[in-house]
Target: FtsX-like permease family protein
Amino acid sequence: MLNNWLKIAFINYKKNWLSTIINLFGLTIGLTGFMLILMHWNDEESYEKWNPKKDNIYAFQQYNPKENTYSPSISYPLADRTLKVIPEIRDYVLFSGSGMAFKMTAKNKTVYQKEGMNVSQNFFNFFPFRLSAGSFKDALKNENSIAFSTKAAKNLFGKTNIVGENVKFDNKNYIVTAVYELPEGNSVIKPEFVVLAYDNLKNDKEGWGNFNYGCFFMLDKNADTEAIQEKILKEVFLYRAKINAQGAGVTPEKYLELYGPQGSLLTPLDQMKLHGKAYWFGTGDFKTMMILFSLSVLIVILSAINFINLKTAQASQRAKEIGVRKAIGSTKTQLVLQFLLETFLLCFTSYFLSLALTELLLPSFNKFFDKEIVMNDWHIYLYSFAMVLAVTLISGLVPATYLANFKAIETLKGNFARSRHGIWLRNGILTLQLIISSFFIIGGLIVNSQVKYMMGKDLGFNGKQIFLVSFNENNPKPWLKYERLKNEMRKIQGVEEVSYGEAVAGSYRYSNSNIDYKDKTIYAQHGSMDYNYLPFMGIKLLKGRWLDPKLASDTINNVLVNETFVKQFGWTDDQAFKNEFRPGFDDKPYKIVGIVKDFNLKSLKSEIEPMIFFHYRATSWKRFNVYNIQLKLKPDDIPATVKRIKKYWESNVEPGYPFDSYFIDKQFAKTFEKYQKQQTLFTILNAMVLMVALLGLFALSSLMIEQKLKDVAIRKTLGASDGTLIMGLTKQFLWITLIAVLISIPISYYLMNEWLKDFAYRIDMPAFPFVLSLILLLILTFAVVSIKAYQATKVNLVKYLKYE
Model:
């Protein structure tokens, strides 16, 4: 029986070769997209899975409902009190820096070593890397301890057995206490060396408001995280509020409302990469991942719809076969199984083709997402094969059940071709297919419009020809270094102007704090700068004046603010110049002398925040944060100027250190990369969907028009013109297309409006994608169907009328 079923299957594949190829093509494309996105998702979910303690380690994120924002930061005293007063918490580890780099000297060798971490003492209790030499117990016991990865040890010493060896960097001597092997699995926490954040922890021991650290907590097994979060609010945040409220002259509750944080979130370590709200080491984008996965599934569904449509359209060709098989004793179950087998053979063939295509596309896919995914995870094969089985059932069971329900007497009489049941089923499924196609066209056009809008928006600054060079971290008095260099580097040929700014567009290296005026508090970004930095960046002054080096007060307590700062306090411009405020980063009042036009520092996805700017000498500590020098280059020969700057830097400023530099406009452009990739993916998916849909439509229209050739011959004999016949054959498909687009419009509007809500600066929902989708699908439907309809008008009349 099985052998007979296979023979029948291959006869039908050969007979309907066009629909077979279209089904194979559509399913292969759909399964390939599904597997690629599934591997991407699986890769994002695999971070920190290597850690044997992952189920008990939770990342801390504070929540401020006033701004509806999350932050990965905590202060040292808050973390320490959390351990002391909440019994479910067994331990904590703090991070004050990651990605550190130093020029290290060991014996007679000097190496520039990157990817270091500044942590608290019990780091290795949370991240038990495989020990190669030494001991983790006392690895970070004192301020002169350092632990190396095996790679860094070989780089510096040429071997791994280096416990007890001396290393010098940052004007200190360190002793190697441990050597470890980094995990092979995905991890964002893979330091090449680890040192104790001794000075930071010492200075911040009583700094309740110094949120300078990332934090992980070690919890008891099966601990209730929601209950712990409530305890953190009541026992830790409120405790801090009681300490500070008296000095602020408000109640603890009011202090929490003004300064926060008012909540916390604990997320398991191995979920932070993709699901974390705010991560010290960078979060993923789960929403985009879900969108991509859903779209890949939609393409598979579209391919399954093609299959169902084509199979039901071929029903009349197999009606007599079914009637004969039923007449000789075949049951419905046997017929359903036979048709499911035929479907499975096609799906299984597509599965193997998609595996090969995925392997071919994987290098380009990895380059696109900056990953190193390989097809060595059995889960990918299991899930994709499960999808094949699901497609087999979805796309096979509907036509199989439909065909198996034919009545033997009617089919043997040839009456099936005149039944309306098959037409309604085909039209309904075709409508669903066109709804999906319309959504992809509308969505692709809206994504494209949003990205173009972001790329063309006035950012409020001009970063062209602004070249930034970063200092290394070994600067005891970096502001003096900047002041010396600014005078010397002005002399380099091709350099037009020099300045410094802490808050750089496209970078996230800036700070924020509370700003208090009477009984009102807002949070604002603050950036130290040189006198000329804002005009240097092309930022417009709306009212007041710039900072002036001739006025001593401009290096003491005078600041510039942006428009949003003034608006959030509810001041007029004149009131802003009269009022003094107290910032959380200093203990003296500050006065506004200028208001600048709003400009974007972050991605356009974020709203412009209140900002204040002041000279780096105005505070006792900001001068120590001077970390760059920025140069405006003349446009005539920029590459040659960059070479001269690099040569000067490596010879006279930081010999032996990498030349860390970039153009600010290019750095800010990186904030668009994510959305440009979404645009590219939507374009690719659009092309795939339209190709699969149009091929399916062509095959379906071909089969349906072939069933009407006798009607065409009769009408042509009675004098109908070719144009009339073509419109008659295509009219049904045009009506289906119109109905499908009208159904898709509200669905597309809702989904794309939800996507646009993520952007602070977004387009108004345009009408043209909806209109264009309708026009485009009508044109494509007419073009595809009319090709076959035109061929039908050229039928041999004798052939179709000789039996009438």
Confidence is low (pLDDT under 50) at residues 415-419.
